[in-house]
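Hi support team,

I've been running sequence recovery on a batch of backbones for a student project. Most finish fine, but this one hangs at about 90% for roughly twenty minutes before it completes. I'm not sure whether the input is malformed or the queue is just slow. I've pasted the structure tokens below so you can try to reproduce it. Let me know if you need the job ID as well.

Thanks,
M.K.
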């Protein structure tokens, strides 16, 4: 009995000698919330994630996805707004002041245009490709969220006789559009539920990468249709919500949910061939 006890005790002591000694908290490297180059540390296993291939759509007060750590919602101590990691760092808070930094500063505008292999330059081309045959030579065209008029410029390049209008909540955007198109009609306006135009005012109403920022997108769509003349066209483009991760967006639609949002107006909805953004075309019925 005594010898058996000694053998068991010896085995326990041997295992204790082999076991690693736990590190004290003081010996661990200090945890810091951010680094000086602007990239956060996200410890593995300490955050929720959405599996690849899934998506979430809905108000940003209910969902927040940052799987790529590309953009940040709040500047940390010592950080500045800059375009080094994409123009999203400048505009993600959805304020007119932030968009003034985009549209009013040449280096930011250049970065915006070349980002993602010139995706925004390609976007304007494929939007007009899809609706070019529906644009009359002297059509009255408006762009809701016009920026400095890149999309309007593509329309005029193909239809020199069109009349151009646009609105944007950025004062710098409107200044740029007015310089570019002296005969156009541009105004600064914050979109909430209504648009500052009379009913049946335009032959073509365009709205690109705007709805996903708004609190009441369906009400604004109704306004886009209202200001379009019978027989005219409303063209709406939004990012593909299955891929989009920008913190400045409130809504993340896929083809089915975007079509459901617009179902009242019988839209044609399909991804664009290059950028894969979702484009809806609505033919406004005659009186």
């Amino acid at each position: 009995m005594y010898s058996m006890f000694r053998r068991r005790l010896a085995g326990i002591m041997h295992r204790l000698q082999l076991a690693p000694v736990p590190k004290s908290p003081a010996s661990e490297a200090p945890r810091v919330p951010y680094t000086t180059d602007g990239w956060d540390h996200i410890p593995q296993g300490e955050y929720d994630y959405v599996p690849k291939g899934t998506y979430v759509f809905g108000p940003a007060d209910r969902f927040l996805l940052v799987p790529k750590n590309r953009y940040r919602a709040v500047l940390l101590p010592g950080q500045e707004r800059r375009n080094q990691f994409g123009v999203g760092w400048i505009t993600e808070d959805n304020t007119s002041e932030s968009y003034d930094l985009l549209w009013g500063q040449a280096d930011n505008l250049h970065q915006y245009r070349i980002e993602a292999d010139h995706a925004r330059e390609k976007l304007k081309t494929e939007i007009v490709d899809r609706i070019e045959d529906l644009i009359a030579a002297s059509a009255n065209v408006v762009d809701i969220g016009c920026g400095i008029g890149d999309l309007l410029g593509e329309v005029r390049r193909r239809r020199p006789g069109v009349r151009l209008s646009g609105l944007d909540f950025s004062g710098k955007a409107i200044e740029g559009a007015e310089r570019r198109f002296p005969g156009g009609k541009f105004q600064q306006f914050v979109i909430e539920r209504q648009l500052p135009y009379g009913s049946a005012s335009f032959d073509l109403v365009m709205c690109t990468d705007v709805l996903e920022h708004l609190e009441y997108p369906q009400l604004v769509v109704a306004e886009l249709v209202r200001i379009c003349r019978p027989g005219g066209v409303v063209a709406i483009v939004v990012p593909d919500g299955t891929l989009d991760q920008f913190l400045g967006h409130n809504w993340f639609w896929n083809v089915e949910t975007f079509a459901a949002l617009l179902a009242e107006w019988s839209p044609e909805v399909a991804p664009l061939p290059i950028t894969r953004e979702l484009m809806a075309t609505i033919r406004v019925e005659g009186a």
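--
Follow-up from support: It reproduced on our side and the slowdown came from queue contention, not your input. The radius of gyration is 27 Å. No action needed from you.
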